[in-house]
Specification:
With about 300 residues, this protein is α/β, with parallel strands linked by helices. Helix content is about 30%, strand content about 25%.
């Protein structure tokens, strides 16, 4: 709840610093208020800058007041000072938390998405799309997953917590079929669009909670998995998902985690039927304590 004046953040590439500083300058010129988290009042709440290796830049602004005139004046001034912006969105957030997955995004300027490449796969990223923040390391992470999966081209691959399909689509050319499940509906729409955009014809995606979608009837419809890729949120997998994986008995599970402690909990449960063959850490967030870990599990025979 404290304000820290940062002129340059060394962890973010340009134009993040330029944008943030110009926002401050314009806000002071226009007499805009800054959000107070204790009182839940104020206009300027927060902003997200998304950049891609293709050079495109997305700006998403969150404001605490539904005042279209203020929003227009601010964003038009920002665009005048920062003509490099590819697309701009805003949302009005009057809640006490900063989450905006349940809020409506209003497209204000430019394209509706920015482009990013992982290997040969092109992704269109929207304002609510989950995508790895560190693209170069994401390729390293996905290559570890690919190595652990040991795909021959004949496998039925389940991609759990698929997001916008990034891992599944990255591996699609190396397996027979990709079946992805993701809770956030907008992400699944992105996954389907990215699949079509890249002419990937061996993928199918479902929106819904993995614990509700992944059932025996689901596996009967799509075939038993030969390999399961699971990349859950920080809370790890729901106990029902772990139980279902034990029932499905896929020969190989590759578990990607952004929180090793919850991964360790789930791996301990999966050891009922699986051996942990190897674990590889990938530093996705340099200069922070956070790491991603990839674990390979093989079904005991």
């Amino acid at each position: 709840d404290k304000i820290l004046n940062i002129n340059k953040c060394h962890l973010q590439p340009e134009p993040s610093n330029t944008l943030r500083n110009s926002f401050k300058e314009i806000a002071l010129e226009q007499g805009l208020t800054f959000y107070d988290v204790r009182k839940n009042i104020g206009f300027l709440r927060n902003m997200i800058v998304r950049t891609s290796t293709t050079g495109e830049v997305m700006l998403v602004l969150s404001v605490g007041e539904d005042d279209q005139e203020k929003i227009d004046n601010l964003l038009n001034a920002v665009l005048e000072k920062n003509p490099f912006l590819t697309c701009v969105y805003f949302t009005v957030n009057k809640k006490v938390n900063d989450s905006w997955f349940d809020l409506e995004m209003t497209h204000f300027f430019g394209k509706k998405t920015i482009e990013e490449f992982l290997g040969n796969v092109k992704f269109e990223i929207g304002p609510k799309s989950f995508f790895q923040t560190n693209t170069k390391q994401a390729i390293r992470l996905f290559d570890v997953v690919k190595e652990f999966a040991e795909l021959s081209g004949k496998e039925n691959l389940y991609d759990l917590y698929t997001g916008l399909g990034s891992i599944g689509l990255y591996l699609a050319e190396n397996c027979k079929q990709v079946v992805g499940i993701e809770e956030i509906n907008a992400a699944i729409e992105d996954a389907k669009a990215n699949s079509d955009r890249n002419n990937i014809n061996n993928s199918v995606f479902y929106a819904g909670d993995v614990k509700d979608i992944l059932t025996n009837s689901f596996s009967e419809k799509h075939g038993k998995p030969d390999v399961v890729i699971t990349d859950p949120p920080r809370a790890g997998m729901h106990p029902k998902v772990v139980e279902m994986l034990l029932q499905l008995e896929a020969p190989r599970i590759v578990y990607v985690s952004c929180k090793p402690s919850t991964q360790a909990r789930d791996l301990n449960l999966l050891q009922e039927k699986y051996n942990i063959k190897k674990v590889q850490a990938v530093d996705m967030f340099p200069q922070t304590p956070h790491i991603e870990t990839v674990a390979l599990l093989e079904l005991r025979k």
